[in-house]
Amino acid sequence: ACDYLNLARGLTAMIPACRSLVGLVVLFVLLGTLVEGNSHKFKQGQAIPFYVNKAGPYFNTHETYHYYSLPVCRPQKVVSRSLTLGEVLRGDRMAESLYSLQFNKNVHDEVLCKTLLDRGDIETLIGAIE
Asked: What gap in Å lies between CA 4 and CA 100, rounded to an integer?
């Protein structure tokens, strides 16, 4: 691919092949970093962090609402998570969820909370996602 000894072809002929090779190397380095960053191994029963994010209409991704600004079950105090640059650029708004998850623990039909929604609450929810 990148034959620097073959000067007969000239530098301009080697540039596309070298660019492709450099692109592949960068891709593999990035993939390796991503895989390594997600290699956390959970232990039996260990708490798994679970976050809520933003909500918004499917066909208008620029119109978003913080999850806890909607009429849903919410904690007494909303604790936001620090965001990565990519999450900030995507407009994410992560906050700790009320859900409690433990690794490798089955849970069935557990109630998070009970709340009564009035007509205005339902219209707010519908407006947030339509």
From this structure: 58
- Taking the C-alpha atoms of residue 29 and residue 48, their distance in angstroms, rounded to an integer, is 28
pTM of the model: 0.60
d(CA 42, CA 35): 16
Q: What is the mean pLDDT of the chain?
A: 76
Q: Partners of 80 in the beta sheet?
A: 95
Name the DSSP class of 47: E
92/54 Cα distance (integer angstroms): 6
Query: What is the distance between the alpha carbons of residues 4 and 11, in angstroms, rounded to a whole number?
Result: 8
Write the DSSP assignment of 51-94 as a string of letters: EE-EE--TT-TT--EEGGGSSS---SS--BPP--HHHHHHT---
Per-residue pLDDT of 3-38, as tens digits, reads 444 444 444 444 444 444 444 444 444 444 444 445
Residue 6: both structure tokens together: 């073959």
